[in-house]
Amino acid sequence: MAASGQALTMVPKTVQELAAAVREPPSRYVRPEQERHASLLAADEMQEPIPLVDLSRLTDADEANKLRAALQTWGLFLATNHGIEDSLMDAMMSASREFFRQPIEEKKKCSNLVEGKPFEIEGYGNDKVVSQDQILDWQDRLHLRVEPEDGRNFAKWPTHPESFRDVLHEYSSRTKGIRDVILRSIANLLELNEDYFVNQLSNKATGFARFNYYPPCPRPDLVLGLKSHSDGGLLTILLVDEDVGGLQVQRDGKWYNVRAKPHTLVINLGDCMEIMNNGIFRSPIHRVVTNAEKERLSLAMSYNVDGEMVLEPAPGLVDDKRPSRYMKLKNKDFVAGLIKHFLQGTRFIETLKI
Ligand SMILES: O=C(O)CCC(=O)C(=O)O
Ligand SMILES: [Fe+2]
To answer: Which atom, in ligand 1's list, is nearest to the CA of 212?
Structure first.
């Protein structure tokens, strides 16, 4: 009895239910004093905007240089002319919104937490709770594997709205194409064989769609929608809410708001890419602040190599002057370490630096 009682207290409600019920966020959501010292909401004034890169012109030296500058300064950029029609982006956003607007009971049909079964990485819910002092994020999410296609677990894919599966299938086939365009440009910038990164992707390479839903929060000064982190994989292609901001990126210890223009994508590098390019382009630290009045939605498509692959810098980027800056390890061990650290609010990649 005691054990199951304890297990229950480890399992939070959805944040959507909490947001409807409380005026003050429970203490498990409140960030520590030292993190709130400089208000969570106060962002620094940007000297220059985050670059907008035209993906259809990356073979032009000017545009490629803009991409290089963006990766060197921010690790992140906005992408336009990416080839996804506005109508498909809008359809993806409205299908996500419709999913989250359903009653909790409907959404729980896709739950990542089925009674009596271990926590699953895929499905609807929140992070796994591993300790009572873990600080929780003000968000619910739906996390689905989209790549490899034969690894999709349709038991977790919503059936409402009816269009959801087809729209996600179409949207993810397009973001996969964008992944490859960007990987080739980065390889060119680093003077590697253009296909170097694309060739690291076996038919088991993974892609996940993470639909983030941030309910309004009564105390945005105390709580984060998504804690400070860097993404684990090669790169992330992010579609953000047009109406509600919240994403912030860190540069030289300061936080800056990332505002995307309508129908642009926000693209950022992940830790595996940082390792594979030997630290020349870093994966940016970012977080999401909450909003007192409005809900917010985003969709992060994150792409990675397969679990058995050994992560190490490209041989062309290692020499006597620039030896490897990271310890070698298998991607599946990296992912395990990343999740453990993420839940505690730390970064695994920091422990791998030589
Ligand atoms: O909601 C956002 O804008 C960012 C989401 C994010 O960083 C993530 O899902 O890893
Ligand atoms: Fe992220």
So the answer is: 1
Displacement of CA 4 from its chain's centroid (Å): 32
Global confidence as pTM: 0.95
Of ligand 1's listed atoms, the one at least distance from the Cα of 268 is 7
Ligand nearest to the CA of 208: 1
Query: Does ligand 1 come within 6 angstroms of the Cβ of 274?
Result: no
3-class DSSP state of 20? helix
Q: Whose CA is nearest to atom 1 of ligand 1?
A: 298
HEC-encoded secondary structure of 166-219: HHHHHHHHHHHHHHHHHHHHHHHHCCCCCCCCHHHCCCCCCEEEEEEEECCCCC
- pLDDT, tens only, 279-330: 999 999 999 999 999 999 999 999 999 999 999 999 999 999 999 999 999 9
> How many CB atoms neighbour CB 238 within 10 A?
25
Whether ipTM > 0.85 holds is yes
Q: Say how far apart CA 135 and CA 32 lie, in whole Å.
A: 9
Protein residues with C-beta less than 5 angstroms from the ion ligand 2: 231
Q: Whose CA is nearest to atom 8 of ligand 1?
A: 300
Domains of the chain, first to last:
52-352 (2.60.120.330)
Structure tokens at 286: 């970012």
Burial 250-261 (b: 16+ CB within 10 A, else e): bbeeebbbbbbe
**Residue 240 in contact with ligand 1 by CB distance below 6 A:** yes
307 pairs with which residues across the strands?
none
Ligand 1 center to 212 CA (angstroms): 7
